[in-house]
Amino acid sequence: METGTGAGVGAVPRGAGPSMCGASDTAHLCQIGSNYPFTDPYGYRKLTSMDKPRDRVGTRVNLTLPDEVIAILDRMGAVTGAGRATILREFICESAEGFADIAKALEMAQAKNVDAFKVLAKTIDKSVSDSQQLSLDMKRTRRRMRRKSK
Questions:
Q1: 80-129 pLDDT, tens digit each
Q2: Rg of the Cα trace of the chain?
Q3: In angstroms, rounded to a whole number, what is the distance separating the alpha carbons of residues 141 and 126?
Q4: Half-sphere exposure of 78 (CA within 13 A, CB side)
Q5: What predicted TM-score, i.e. pTM, was given to this entire model?
Q6: I need a surface site. Which of 13, 64, 110, 131 has the fewest CB within 10 A?
Q7: Is 31 helix (H, G, I), strand (E, B) or coil?
Q8: Is the CB of residue 5 less than 8 Å from the CB of residue 11?
Q9: What are the extents of the domains in the chain?
Q10: Can you list the positions of beta strands (E) in 2-137?
Q11: Which residues are within 8 A (CB) of 74 and not within 5 positions of it... i.e. 6 or more apart?
C-alpha cells in the first residue's frame, strides 16, 4: 500500500483525505498525490498536482527570496499572466550562456589562470553589446508604434 505519511500501522493511504502534519497550512510531502487545495504563505490557493505529468522537464530548485523580489515578481505576473517560477525560469534560461562563461572564468581563476579576466571581460562585452542592440530594437519599435498611432 502506497502511503502519504509513511508505511506502518495507522498509515494513511495517499490521496485519502487532506492529511496535513501539525497545524501547518502550507504544502507538505503528505499532500503529494492528492488534489486538495492548500494556501501558501502569501495567501495564494493552490491545488497540488504531483500526479499529473509536467510540461517542463529538469531539476527543481527551491529559492528563498526577499519580500521585495516577491513583490516585483507578483507585479510582473499580474501584467504578463505568468507565475513567479515561470518568470524566473525565463530569465535564468536566457542567461544560461553568460552563466556558463562565468563558471568557466571561475574555474580558470581557481586554477590560477590569469586568462580568467579575459573570459570575464569578453562576457561583459558581449552582454553590453547585446543589451545595446536590444535597446536599439526597442527604440525602433517604439518609433514605429508612435507613427502608426498618429
A1: 999 999 999 999 999 999 999 999 999 999 999 999 999 999 999 999 99
A2: 23
A3: 23
A4: 6
A5: 0.55
A6: 64
A7: helix
A8: yes
A9: 1-52, 60-94, 96-150
A10: 37-39, 45-47
A11: 84
